[in-house]
Predict the structure.
Amino acid sequence: MSLSVEGLVVEIDGRRVVDGVSFEVADGSRLGLIGESGSGKSLTALAIMGLLPDGARASGSIRWHGRELLGMPEREIARLRGDEIGLVFQEPLTALNPIRTVGRQIAESVRIHEGLPRRAAWERAIAEADRVHLPEPERIVRRYPHELSGGQRQRVAIAMALACRPRLLIADEPTTALDVTIQAEILTLLRALVDDERMSLIFITHDLAVLGRIAAEGVVLAHGRVIEQAPVAELLRSPRTDVTRGLLRDAAATRWRREDPGEERIP
Ligand SMILES: Nc1ncnc2c1ncn2[C@@H]1O[C@H](COP(=O)(O)OP(=O)(O)OP(=O)(O)O)[C@@H](O)[C@H]1O
């Protein structure tokens, strides 16, 4: 098992916001964490990465290839981030430096983790931009984040996360801020990259329809607890809890609205 989370508890100001969460991610598998807002998805991911906010305390166990991550010294866990575990967040602007070209930022993440010389890292940045299907990679790497569209920025963030070929990618609502067409393109891209590299994936979303496109197994969280775990196809076909049924209704309603723009037309 590449990642094994057991009885994870996260407390903030004495409040248990993650309350005994357990799941496993096998090598090369795609797991989805799904739940309503505030159910504890992001804090579970942040605990895995050793990035919990100040004042949060984690207990239980998080093993990565047999090594316990909880309590690991910051220097060691920082090395794992990027080298072995990549991260993509909802808003790529928070991951990107506004005053550096995107090429320099991709090159930097390669340099830090692989120690490549400047020129080779720059060549790699262009190749990585191409790999995430950014148009005209040689030109786009010279641009600044604000000169790119939201979808292109998310492609840059994905390129940075994957430049060092991590074995696990954690993506926290990476498509939520994007419009539907771009969302679908990014999901297809992520799926292809994860499959090509035989990476494992933890994908976080509140949208069961999105999960259906990217993850094989789904873990449903509510109030910091796992309330249902099943193949995503099964969650979509026969949800067993009210929460999952609610998520399915929301997903269906959103899809219906998207497919029927006439709804918003003034008669
Ligand atoms: N820095 C913080 N300080 C205090 N409480 C927090 C903090 N971060 C999260 N929480 C609380 O912890 C609970 C779980 O939050 P978390 O962000 O993990 O939920 P989530 O399922 O990812 O929701 P969302 O989809 O809205 O991001 C929520 O009740 C939230 O208010």
